Amino acid sequence: MVAKQWVDTLTSYRMIHAFKTALACLIGLVVFRTFNLDHGQWVIITVAVVMGAQVTVGAAEDKSIARSAATVIGAAAAGLFLLTGWGEDFFRLAVSFISSVFWFRLSCWK
Question: What distance in Å separates the CA atoms of residue 28 and residue 70, rounded to the nearest whole number?
Fold first, then answer.
């Protein structure tokens, strides 16, 4: 009876997901240490955030693609602000930030 409970626990989707997340963090740690990355702790934090609440492979893939796209868009916007000189004008930057938060909220409305 106790052995069956242990087998059921070890083969549950939550336990398997926890193992996969821990393994992914371990691989991130090995990459961080092997290549001696600056601020490499972000590798492990990113793995934990992306894998944390995503039990299925498709959900983690969708989340990582969305994060990558948001990073590229944010970097392009920051570069545009720096090239056009908007970074020097706090008011324009604040208005841009507030409008982008508002637009994000509208686009995520369900």
Answer: 22
Q: pTM for the whole thing?
A: 0.48
Rounded CA separation 32/26 (Å): 10
CA-only gyration radius of the chain, Å: 20
40: confidence class by pLDDT, cuts 50, 70, 90: confident
- Closest C-alpha to 81, from 90, 70, 72: 90
**8 Å CB contact between 43 and 37:** yes
The span from the CA of 13 to the CA of 36, in Å, is 34
pLDDT at residue number 54: 65
Tokens of 35: 């290549």
